[in-house]
Specification:
The protein is mostly beta strands. Helices cover 0% and strands 56% of the residues. The chain has no helices and eleven strands. Strands 2, 4, 5, 6, 9, 10 and 11 form a seven-stranded mixed beta sheet that branches. Strands 1-3-8-7 form a four-stranded antiparallel beta sheet, with no helix packed on it. A hairpin with a 2-residue loop joins strand 7 and strand 8.
């Protein structure tokens, strides 16, 4: 079992910024991609942003131009969230794909007040 460590959630006013971080154990290798999904109450878990080991990124349309995913090293990624909106309120889950398996963090709450 791989434990993903998330940090950076919290409460922010609309228009503000937050930065999420996710770290996979440094001892593991062969990570294909990492990223973030989110789930609001009553909704399904949806993609926010992903980044491959080669650096290719993918964003949900709703966050393009506001969120930026980056890789600090092969096992750590960050999600910079700017111009936050109340509709961004959700539990954000770190995601990792390795050997065709998906791994999830425990989730971190992001709440944007209007």
């Amino acid at each position: 079992q791989v434990h993903l460590v998330e940090s950076g959630g919290g409460l922010v006013q609309a228009g503000g910024s937050l930065r999420l971080s996710c770290a996979a154990p440094g001892s593991i290798s062969s990570i294909n991609a990492m990223g973030w999904y989110r789930q609001a109450p009553g909704n399904e878990r949806d993609l926010v942003a992903t980044i491959s080991q080669g650096g290719s990124t993918n964003y949900a349309d709703s966050v393009k131009g506001r969120f930026t995913i980056s890789r600090e090293d092969k096992n750590t990624v960050h999600l910079q969230m700017n111009s936050l909106k109340p509709e961004d309120t959700a539990v954000y889950y770190c995601w990792m794909r390795r050997y065709d398996l998906n791994y999830w963090g425990q989730g971190t709450q992001v709440t944007v007040s209007s």
